[in-house]
Amino acid sequence: MKKLLIVLFIGLIAGVLDLIPLLLVNAPLFNMLSVLAFWLVAAYIIAKTTILRNSILNGLVISILLMLPMALAVSATNPKDFIPMMFMSLLLGPFVGFAIGKFANKN
Predict the structure, then answer these.
(1) In 3-state terms, what secondary structure has residue 1?
(2) Which pLDDT does position 104 carry in this prediction?
(3) What is the pLDDT of residue 1?
(4) What are the angstrom distances between the C-alpha of 69 and each of 9, 20, 61, 103?
(5) Listed residue (96, 85, 107) closest to 31, CA to CA
(6) 92 vs 1, 59, 66, CA distance in Å?
(7) What are the distances in angstroms from CA 36 to CA 8, 19, 20, 28, 54?
(8) Contact 92, 19 (CB under 8 A)
(9) Would you give per-residue pLDDT tens digits along the chain (107 residues)?
(10) Cα dist. 58→22, 26, 86 in Å?
(11) Predicted pLDDT at 105
(12) Helix 2-24 with 82-99: angle, nearest 10 deg
């Protein structure tokens, strides 16, 4: 239970960091809630899935794989949003992987 709370806290931090650009452009509330939900779920999946042994690269790969379908769907109506969405995934995915590897996967 403690590990789950740590993982969710890490996801919440990533979600809040991803919200900063959205707050600057007055994005709709549902977009902001979607970002928070994405990072909470992504942190959980990163914690439970090992594609690569390096936690930083694992976070990067998994966050890209999770973000890609959502970014493609959003870019169908807002093409300019694809690059910022993928950029935040490239930036925050390794952070989440590192934090989970350091704080949640202690042995």
Answers:
(1) coil
(2) 87
(3) 86
(4) 24, 22, 14, 29
(5) 85
(6) 24, 8, 12
(7) 11, 8, 11, 13, 25
(8) no
(9) 899 999 999 999 999 999 999 999 999 999 999 999 999 999 999 999 999 999 999 999 999 999 999 999 999 999 999 999 999 999 999 999 999 999 988 65
(10) 26, 32, 16
(11) 81
(12) 150
Residue 58 CB-half CA count within 13 A: 19
Tokens standing for residue 95:
């952070």
Q: How far is CA 66 from CA 24, 26, 45, 96, in A?
A: 25, 25, 9, 13
Rounded CA-CA distance 92/63 in Å is 8
Decide: residue 34, CB within 10 A, 0-12 exposed, 13-18 middle, 19+ buried. Answer: middle
Q: Residue 85: CB partners within 8 Å, gap ≥ 6?
A: 67, 70, 71, 74, 75
